[in-house]
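Any chance you'd type out a single protein's sequence alongside its tokenized fold?
>
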Amino acid sequence: MARTGQDRVTPDLSQSGGYAQVLSAAGMKSAWARPLFDGPDLLGFLFLDATVLNYFNPNVVADLQVFADLTRLIIIQNLTATKFLRSVVKVSREFSRYRDEETGMHLERMSHYAQEIARGLAPRFSLSDEYVAFVHLFAPLHDIGKVAIPDHILLKPGKYEPEEFLIMKNHSRLGAEMIDRMAETRQVPKWVCHCSITVVSAAAT
């Protein structure tokens, strides 16, 4: 299907092998599958089963066209938001390196630490694999607020003065505000980004 882009209709699952036998044993009689594309890129496959033999006739498949197209568009919308956030993470990581090499290395370390912490907490707090993946992917955003800190403070080699330390501490608030604006602009759930900040905060303590 991926090569041809064509639907696959299975009128009688009991006459097919492989996973069709699993579906047949579960009471399914027929099935329909369609590959979903975004231009030349394969997004995945849409599978539907029925408890009636030869259910997916041409009329039913035609009626399912709208459902398949809506499913495809929803997937594309979600992937577009994720791709955008990936780009933001990459840019913020590279920008941090240009300003401060140690900050760039810190982002790499925190990404891995946060992922390990999230994996360890997953059974206790019922964190999904998707959540853990997001933690690792977006952990570098936890220090994005440092781009708003003046260089004479961010790059200061010695100990901060009390007033400088107060300014430096603002980077977490500034970063959260940046993420909120970014999430609202791209209509991305804020938990996708903020989950990383929460876990990274634990990693940094």
User: Anything to note?
Assistant: Residues 183 and 189 are 6 Å apart (CA to CA). The helical segments are 19-25, 58-99, 101-125, 129-138, 151-154, 162-186, 190-204. The chain has two domains: 8-56, 78-204.
